[in-house]
Amino acid sequence: MTRNPDLEAVRRANAADVARRIDERRRQLGVDDETLAREAAMAPAYLRHLLEVGPGFDAAGFVRVAAALRMTWTDLLEDRPDAPPGQSEPAAGVRPLLRHLTEPECWDLVGTHGVGRVGLPADPAPSVYPVNYAVDRRTVVYRTSSGGGGAPPGQPPAAGE
C-alpha dihedral over 135, 139, 141, 147, to 10 degrees? Predict the structure, then answer.
């Protein structure tokens, strides 16, 4: 996930911006300073010192911090220049945390909502309908009128959100 430090990027990096990105990511992950320092193999006082002086002081220390925060070295030093899909500007410090869910975790999450959308094949493009749904023995069920848009003939593939 992290690469060796690019010395030119280290020189360009603004210490305050790097410290802000670290703090935002730390809060996003729900990690306190003590835990971050431990996971980066350094004393909490040394972590605070690094955040004050910036990556030019100890680039390897910042590589360890990036790894502990599950960030790339580049994302730690330089904010993403591109906007996330659907946004005109990058949201300040917001980076969604993606993680692999087990099948039971997925069913637990789907079963707690009850409101979603179902996408069904149609001509010339898919049709998407809002639905109230329930989970019954690992099956998503929703009620619709027979012959309605949410009840296509046969059993075509469907997408749920």
Answer: 170
